[in-house]
Amino acid sequence: MQPNNKQQVGITIKDLTLAFGETEVLKGVNLEIEPGEFFAFLGPSGSGKSTLLRAIAGFGPEPQGQILLGDEDIKALPPWRRNVGMVFQSYALWPHMTVRQNVAYGLEERKVPTSEIRERVDNALNLVGLYHLAERRPSQLSGGQQQRVAIARTVVVEPRVLLLDEPLSNLDANLREQMRRDLLELQRQLGLTTIFVTHDQEEANTISDRIAVLDQGVIQQVGKPMELYDNPSNKFVADFLGTANMLNGRLHEGLNGKTFMTEFGVSFPFDHPDNGAMSLVFRPQSLEICDEDMVPNRIELQGSVKHKEFLGHLVRYSIDVGGQVLMVDDPHRRGAEHIENGSSIRLALKPEEIVALR
Ligand SMILES: Nc1ncnc2c1ncn2[C@@H]1O[C@H](COP(=O)(O)OP(=O)(O)OP(=O)(O)O)[C@@H](O)[C@H]1O
């Protein structure tokens, strides 16, 4: 199997809606996935990630809208004519067949000549590092090895795109990290446009070029992992991608510039083109604990420590600021032991790290 960069195709999804009976599960999905991209569908359980992936593969009820592979609308094609490879969460290996037979199965079905099957299966097994286990049955393999067989079996037929439905969720944490790296390397080697479904934001962040965040059958935002983390376009995305502090309140124009007043009555200067009700969102590491003089160009907040968790490289504090609890991640340094529950502290917030959401 050779890297097939020449055949890389993008995937375009236009106005896709899909219902199970009366229940609409995908509600007007629009998406452009670039050729060769490693793309993730990220969202909580029930958000429609698997349904969207399965719709691309041709499984499940027929959706409304369009699914294009390159220029070709594949929506009306049966799964086996789409040239799309899908790896299921359960792996779905044949238990009575050896690893080699499992991987060869799809080629035999396609009536590929025997000598070519041998060569392609060898290549696929080498690619996933399982050549030496070719004569074993799935029950004689670890979870990670079974996962690799499932991938080899899918890529051996040289699909135009690779779809992976939570492929790492049955593996333990260490193996998952290793498989993440292996999967990314394999994807780069093959140059296959790949979609990966996960509910784990760390997994999506580490593996993907771009992510679509889904909630309730709607794409909430699409972007590179850091873009989504730094500039969430709504509260759902802010919360789903890591810990987010959120201050709800109003922005007023005063004589000396603009002031933000939280719903709990804490106020501070804040500059933003809009006025009125908004939420200010910022990450725990955007707040600093100030022992001495206030750093210039920071928003100052007074609070008291409610809870403290020492995590080694950082200390995570819960700080009560005028009736609202904010999370603060402070890089651990010697000499901070005196900050205890009940301590009064000053916080400095970097205004440029605040995202104002309406
Ligand atoms: N065969 C089905 N019949 C009826 N409803 C279904 C069917 N499959 C999925 N659903 C519903 O569609 C919604 C989306 O399900 P889907 O499996 O796509 O979510 P998901 O984001 O992949 O979740 P998970 O991470 O739990 O797999 C859910 O509310 C689910 O109950």
From TrEMBL:
Gene Ontology terms for molecular function: ATP binding
Protein name: ABC transporter ATP-binding protein
Residue span, ABC transporter domain: 11-241
Keyword Cell membrane: yes
Coiled-coil features, chain-numbered ranges: none
Keyword ATP-binding attributed: yes
Keywords: ATP-binding, Cell membrane, Membrane, Nucleotide-binding, Transport
